[in-house]
Amino acid sequence: MEKQPLILITGAAGFIGSCVVQFFNEQGRENIVLADKFTDLQKERNWKDKKYKYLVDRELLLEWLDENKPNLEFIIHLGARTNIREKSNIVLQEMNVEYSEDVWNYATAYNIPMVYASSAATYGNGELGFTDDDNTINDLQPLNEYATSKHNFDKWAVQQLNAPPYWAGLKFFNIYGPNEYHKGEGCSIVLKTFKQIEESNTVTLYKSNSDRFEDGGQLRDFVYVKDVAKLIWWMYETMIHKQWQPEKNGLYNVGTGEARSFKDVAILVFKALGKEPNITYTEMPEDIAGGFRGVSEATTIKLKHAGYNEPFTSLEEGIEDYIKNYLAKKPV
Question: Which domains does the chain carry?
Answer without folding.
Answer: 6-175+222-257+299-312 (3.40.50.720), 180-220+258-296+317-327 (3.90.25.10)
